[in-house]
């Protein structure tokens, strides 16, 4: 049997240590995720870490460190597809980015242990857990700070709902009012809502605005003939 010919005890024990270390470190990362009821919990992070360690260790065993580096590059790209599976977009909100980043880090931990760099893998595990736990109070404190529209960077849109026959005039008036307030328009889109109304969406070039100024512009736009609704909104850029 080829197994008997190729089996070597000490390299096998080295693989056992690498996979066991990946299992333990992946468990530490996954336990925190499981506690917080994230999509990718304990088992997912363990499997990612162990899988990455197995691929890197296999490359090391078959062709040495040069081939292991190539395997690591494939692990990095491959884990991207897995991470994309936990990212969900709900309206203007995107969920799962932190979970995907944690999976990426679990793969890095596994790659470290697979390359026999267990101490480095343990260090990375500590940083990952610290990022997901110790930084939470800081994140919560930042989120409680009132947003200053003049210093934040976002995409701003002004929306008008008008009668279809008055849409061209309303579009010109929208651009004129915004430019008069020193908010140049980058793009204007028209979205027909059946035969009764048209929504005009003007995207501003500015990434920071004065909320009071935009409120005043919107108030003037509401008084235009045929306008049934006028409002502005912002969304984060990244």
TrEMBL record:
Q: Which residues cross the membrane?
A: 12-30, 42-62, 68-88
Residue ranges of coiled coil:
none
This chain's protein is named Protein MgtC
Which PANTHER family is this protein grouped with?
PROTEIN MGTC
- Function, in words: Virulence factor required for growth in low Mg(2+) medium and for intramacrophage survival. May be involved in regulating membrane potential by activating Na(+)/K(+)-ATPase.
List the Pfam families hit by this protein, alphabetically.
Answer: MgtC (PF02308), MgtC_SapB_C (PF21770)
The record's InterPro entries line, in alphabetical order, gives: MgtC-like_C, MgtC/SapB/SrpB/YhiD_fam, MgtC_SapB_SrpB_YhiD_N
**Which UniProt keyword terms apply here?**
Cell inner membrane, Cell membrane, Membrane, Transmembrane, Transmembrane helix
**Which family is it part of?**
Belongs to the MgtC/SapB family.
| Residue stretches making up the MgtC/SapB/SrpB/YhiD N-terminal domain | 19-139
Q: Where in the cell is it found?
A: Cell inner membrane; Cell membrane
**Among its keywords, does the record have Signal?**
no
User: Principal place where this protein is found?
Assistant: membrane
Q: How does it sit in the membrane?
A: Multi-pass membrane protein
What region holds the MgtC-like C-terminal domain? Answer: 156-232
- Does Transcription regulation appear among the keywords? no
